[in-house]
Amino acid sequence: MRGEPQKRISPKALKVWRLHGVIQTLVLAVLVAGIVVLATIFDWPVWIMAGAIGVLLLFTYLMIFFLPSVRWKRWRYEVREQEIELQRGLLIVKRTLVPMVRVQHVDTVQGPILKRYNLSTITISTAATVHEIPALETGEADELRHSISLLARVAEDDV
Fold first, then answer.
1. What are the percentages of helix, strand and coil residues in the chain, rounded to 5?
2. What's the whole-model pTM score?
3. Phi, psi of 75 (to 5 degrees)
4. Distance between CA 46 and CA 151 in Å, rounded?
5. Cβ neighbours of 33 (radius 10 Å)
6. Cβ neighbours of 32 (radius 10 Å)
7. What CA–CA distance (Å, rounded) separates 144 from 140?
8. pLDDT tens per residue, range 22-49
9. Which candidate, 72, 94, 77, 55, places its Cα nearest to that of 13?
10. What is the average pLDDT across 116-142?
11. Using a CB cutoff of 8 Å and minimum separation of 24, what contacts does 69-73 make?
């Protein structure tokens, strides 16, 4: 039995995930502000405003501070000759083995936030689903995409 995968994603992933958390928090803050305004106009009970603000504060802590750090600590991957192993999760850690013979194609994806931090996400497509390795340095992602592509071709030739 093998141990857990050893390679980690870039530490810059924390900044990207925190930025996503800030954006999500701002959207929720607009909704909470609307609830506070409505509660004031229609003289709703104070607990409604307090509850909405409490939810916003909890959401802010979880999405900006707690979840990105736990997610980064758990995310690991390893590319071997016969398979790709992925480990991720928050409370429940999920480990996935993707056999090289099942890999159909490999892509790199880079949105505006990832581009700002020079990161890319690798997507590994099989007939059944798409797997991701998020937030790798762009150069590392390109090299990994190329090596997975070569290993998948070799594995296909062996079948």
1. 55, 25, 20
2. 0.90
3. -75, 120
4. 61
5. 13
6. 20
7. 6
8. 999 999 999 999 999 999 999 999 999 9
9. 72
10. 96
11. 69/14, 71/13, 71/17, 72/8, 72/9, 72/11, 72/13, 72/14, 72/17
